[in-house]
Amino acid sequence: MARQKTIFVCQNCGYKAPKWLGRCPDCSMWNSFVEELTEIGDQDRRRRPHLLDTPQRIDRVAIDKELRHKTGLREFDRTLGGGVVPGSLVLIGGDPGIGKSTLILQVVHRLAQQGLRTLYISGEESVQQIKMRAQRLSADSSELYLLSGTCLEDVIDRLDELTPRIIVVDSIQTIFTESLSSAPGSIGQVREVTSRLMNLAKGSNRALFLIGHVTKDGAIAGPKVLEHLVDTVLYFEGDGSHMYRILRSVKNRYGPTNEIGVFEMMDNGLEEVGNPSRIFLEERATDVSGSVVISCMEGSRPLLVEIQALVCSSSLAIPRRTTIGVDPNRVSLLAAVLAKRGGVHLSDKDIFINVAGGIKIDEPAIDLGIISTIASSFLNKPIARNTVTFGEVGLSGEVRGVSQAELRLKEAVKLGFSRSLLSKKSIQTLKRKMDIELIGVSSIQELLEVLF
Ligand code: TYD
Ligand code: MG
Question: What pTM was estimated for this model as a whole?
Answer without folding.
Answer: 0.79
